[in-house]
């Protein structure tokens, strides 16, 4: 992930999650020395106070970015206000040349009880660049980054994103390989873990360690651990998110059908994680 002009794009609608997204995006822009593009969602249903909130957000972000980098004035900040275009369309268009798109999990238009808003879900499915969906962390003190691996091309992109993020932030990294394993007996009763299952865990953990050798060599400063867990990947990663600062998934793994834009595991984690989720592409 080299440096360059491609901006970090963040959607903002004044909601609590979009405030968290802006904070995350500002930090990402500073770490990556990227310009920041703040996209204000000022559609016809927007609250009357939103334009003032956007200006406050712009001012805060500009101050944060003002002393970053070598150029006078720091990193570039632009604010776009697409009033005659749906938010998902505007953000998807801007994602074409973005380094990263950052969104809140839910905005003002999300229905009560929804785990993720329609805009975040749409961008997660269709954006051509990595997308980070930010929500309040279950464990506010957590620092570790969690990433799922199934040895697919999609998980390679997830590992690249996760190792890069861990190296930039100094966060510890945990790589998790989960797989569905049933220990049900013929009567449907679940039995204690057998010796065979324990051996499979050891084998898969060794395979995972070996697959990570090139990433560890490329990022020697990253504190990395790896786990192999015989449970569905969505369950494993969602559980791990309770004590994580970020969960990273690939857009598609081995289980995805050709033509799918977002695999079932990635979509499941996006819905159920208890911390921000990055969909790597």
CATH architectural category of the largest domain: 3-Layer(aba) Sandwich
Compute the separation of the termini in Å. 11 Å
Radius of gyration: 20 Å
Strands side by side in the biggest sheet: 3-2-1-4-5-10-9-6-7-8
The overall pLDDT, averaged over residues, is: 84
> How many beta-strand segments?
10
Largest sheet: 10 strands, mixed
Secondary structure category: alpha/beta
- Silhouette: globular
**Fraction of residues in helices?**
25-40%
CATH class of the largest domain: Alpha Beta
Quote the beta fraction. Answer: 15-25%
- Helix segment tally: 9
Low-confidence stretches: 110-116, 183-189, 253-262
Work out the count of structural domains: 2
H/E topology pattern: EHEHEHEHEEHEHHEHEHE
CATH topology of the largest domain: Rossmann fold
Report on the architecture of this protein:
- This protein is of the alpha/beta class and 281 residues long.
- It has two domains: 8-134, 3-Layer(aba) Sandwich (Rossmann fold), CATH 3.40.50.620; 145-280, Rossmann fold, CATH 3.40.50.
- The protein is built from nine helices and ten strands.
- It has a ten-stranded mixed beta sheet, with helices on both faces.
- It is globular and about 65 Å long.
- The model is unreliable at 110-116, 183-189 and 253-262 (pLDDT under 50).
């Amino acid at each position: 992930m080299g440096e360059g002009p491609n901006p970090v794009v963040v959607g903002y609608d004044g909601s609590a999650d979009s405030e968290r997204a802006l904070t995350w995006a500002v930090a990402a822009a500073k770490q990556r020395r990227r310009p920041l593009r703040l996209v204000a969602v000022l559609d016809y249903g927007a609250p009357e106070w939103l334009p003032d909130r956007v200006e406050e957000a712009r001012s805060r972000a500009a101050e944060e970015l003002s002393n970053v980098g070598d150029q006078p004035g720091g990193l570039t900040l632009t604010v776009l206000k697409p009033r005659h275009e749906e938010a998902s369309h505007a953000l998807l268009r801007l994602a074409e040349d973005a380094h990263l798109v950052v969104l809140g999990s839910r905005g003002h238009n999300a229905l009560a009880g929804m785990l993720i808003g329609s805009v975040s879900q749409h961008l997660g499915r269709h954006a051509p660049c990595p997308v980070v969906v930010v929500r309040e962390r279950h464990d506010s003190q957590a620092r570790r980054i969690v990433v799922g691996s199934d040895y697919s091309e999609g998980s390679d992109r997830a590992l690249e994103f996760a190792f890069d993020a861990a190296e930039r932030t100094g966060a510890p990294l945990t790589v998790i390989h989960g797989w569905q394993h049933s220990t049900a007996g013929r009567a449907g009763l679940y039995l204690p873990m057998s010796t065979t299952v324990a051996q499979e865990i050891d084998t898969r953990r060794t395979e995972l360690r070996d697959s990570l050798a090139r990433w560890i060599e490329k990022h020697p400063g990253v504190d990395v651990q790896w786990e192999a867990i015989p449970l569905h990947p969505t369950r494993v990663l969602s559980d791990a998110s309770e004590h994580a600062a970020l969960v990273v998934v690939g857009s598609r793994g081995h289980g995805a059908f050709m033509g799918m834009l977002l695999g079932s595991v990635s979509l499941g984690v996006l819905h159920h994680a208890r911390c921000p989720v990055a969909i790597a592409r």
